[in-house]
Amino acid sequence: MPELRKDPIVGRWVIIATERAKRPHDYHPEERLLGAGGVCPFCPGHEGKTPPEILAYRPSEGPGARRDAPGWSLRVFPNRYPALMIEGGLDREGEGLYDRMNGIGAHEVIVETPAHDKHLADLSENEIESVVTAYRDRVADLKRDLRFRYVMIFKNHRAAAGATVQHSHSQLIALPTVPKNVADEMQGALAYYQFKERCVFCDMVAQERRDRRRVVYENAAFLVVEPYAPKFPFETWILPRQHRAAFEDCPRPEFAALADALGVALRKLRRALDDPPYNFILHSAPFGERDSPSYHWHVEIMPTLTRVAGFEWGSGFYINPTPPEEAAAFLRELEE
User: How confident is the model at residue 9 (pLDDT cuts 50, 70, 90)?
Assistant: First the structure.
C-alpha cells in the first residue's frame, strides 16, 4: 500500500509509491521508451496488456462494439503501476510530529489516439476536443468520491520529460489532499482578490490582450501567452478569457476553442524548438472551491530545455535565459 507522508516544515505531502518500488541500482537513465520499435501496450489489438478500460470513445457504439477491444478513438484505464491505490480508507494518523495516511487515490492513463506514430500536436481539432472532453468526464466522475479533494491532469511528452511509453498519452491522479503548489497558487490568488477585489488571472488576461507583447495566439474563448515571469524558456499558458475556477465547469461549446488553442500552442512549440520534450499541467480549483471568485483554471506547458540544478532547488528561484517577450514574438511569427 502506498503512503502519503507530510513534511512538517513546509507542509508538502510526499507519495511513497511502493507499487513503483525501486532499489538504488534501478536508478539509471531511460535509454528507450516502451513501445519504441517493439510491441506497444497502448496500440489497438493489445488491450489485454492494460488493465480493463474505465472509459472509451468508439465511433460505433452499436451491438458490435466491445469493451477492451479495437475500434476505439480514445481509451482510459488505470495505470498498471499506480502512484496511489483506489481501494481502502485513508486511515490518517500521527507518528510523533509526523503525519501520514494511506496512499489512496486514482491513477489513470488517457490514450489520446489509436495511432502509434501520432502525437497530440498532430491530432485534428476534433480529436483534441475528444481528449479534453475525456479529461472533463473523468474529473466529473472522480469528484463524486468523497475521499478525493483534487485531480491533477498532466502530460509528459518524450523520455526527457518523464514519459515511459512512446504512444501519445496523458495521465490523471486523484488525490485525497490539495497539492502544496496548488494551495500556494490559490492563496496567492486569494490575497490579490482580497486587496483589489478582482481575479488576478482575469486582470492578467485583460492586460495581456491590451499589451500584446507576450500574446502568442487568441481565439474567442482562450488566450495563449508567454507568462510575464516564466520559470522556463518558452513556458506557455492557455487562459480562458471568461472567469471560471474549475475546469470541469467549462461549457461544452468552449471545448472546441480549447482544442484549437492547445493544438496551436503545441504545434508552434514543436516547430520553434524541434519537437521538444515538454510537460503540460491543467491547473484547476480543488473540489469545494469551484465557485471561487479569485481563482481561474488554466493550462501550463513547460518545454524541457534547461536543467533545474542546485541554485534552483536551494533557493526556489529559476534562471530563464529567454525573455517571454522574445519567445512570444518568435512563436507568433511561426506558421503552424
Answer: low
